[in-house]
DNA sequence: GAATATAATAAACACTGTTTAGTAAATGCA
DNA sequence: TGCATTTACTAAACAGTGTTTATTATATTC
């Protein structure tokens, strides 16, 4: 019965085709403008076909969402080698911000958008997200252990750090940094200087 | 020619009627579900009539957006009496967070949503927003003058502070704090503890 | 080869924001 | 007062959206 396996493979290939097209369109023109019909056009199938492979639009973007978390995770883990946890924390922070500025659409989908949240709240609660957040927790608990930062409850510290970098990126991504009335390059410099100041304040 | 004045008044009344209805619907069911047709239904006029008073949906929500900034501004200014700028800063922070948690839809419209941003970028650049941000700048420059906080460039410091509180509120409002896997009350407590920790780190 | 299961789609449904063409009432002027 | 003009309003349409249903053509099973 190799036919069933082939069918399964073909089904997965079709799902991949849809995800690839959706990702490409999404990164090119954003979530709202990526309609089911535009994906269907792109892969040269009818819109209804897409619903044979995905429950709804959210399910498609939940897969992209998961992929984005994998990419961020790879970026952050590249600092695993840094022995000093405080230095590692700084590197993670810079990389997080860099990821957000360079992949605003991914960042939006992961941490700002409301759309595919129904999926996220179910499933293995934040699977991918827990991973990156877990990495922050481990790094911070090392910092606390070695008294590199002010003693405080681990989760409170983690939320403080995450909120700060998320605030930086999300205000930038959603164009609220225009209040600075600076050129884009100057604005980005303020962001990174702001991270340096934050880290200086954090240090014991 | 009192007729012209009456007509002008009636026009303004109609605009107010639309805004009131839109605000009420928006706060009850959010931006996306507040359609032009639902507003029209509510005020018992045809959808096309609304377009005689507002250019498009964005223009309606830009007015609500402005009103929301007025409300936030009033909340923040209530701490004008606090003489010590560092204490005042803490009070402003708490009030900012409280406003966000208690008015998530207003907060969303003001600092997260993409929708009525076209309007904001034009007009008297951030008029209302500059006001609240300006208040933060004054308070922080007093803190710097009196050496209550670590010396640093004013705008860098302001962005650090704003990003942090915005991060807190926006992660909460867009339901990313569920990563803590805590009850809502406990999560809110973490937020406020996180503010306390941030302020402690900020202090010289 | 006939019966069944699978894959794909055209067309429709119920929405959305917005525009256009046409109607009825209020106003300005003689 | 009577007529022309401006104003206020709307029904209907347009071009989209996500999603569902009924139907057709193909592939698989027996």
Automatic annotation (TrEMBL), chains A, B:
GO molecular function list: DNA binding
Pfam families documented for this protein = TetR_C_33, TetR_N
Q: Give all residue intervals belonging to the HTH tetR-type domain.
A: 12-72
Indicate the transmembrane segments per the record.
154-173
Report the DNA-binding ranges: 35-54
Q: Which SUPFAM superfamilies match?
A: Homeodomain-like, Tetracyclin repressor-like, C-terminal domain
Q: Could you tell me the keywords of this UniProt record?
A: DNA-binding, Membrane, Transcription, Transcription regulation, Transmembrane, Transmembrane helix
Full protein name: TetR family transcriptional regulator
What organism does the record attribute this protein to? Dyadobacter jiangsuensis
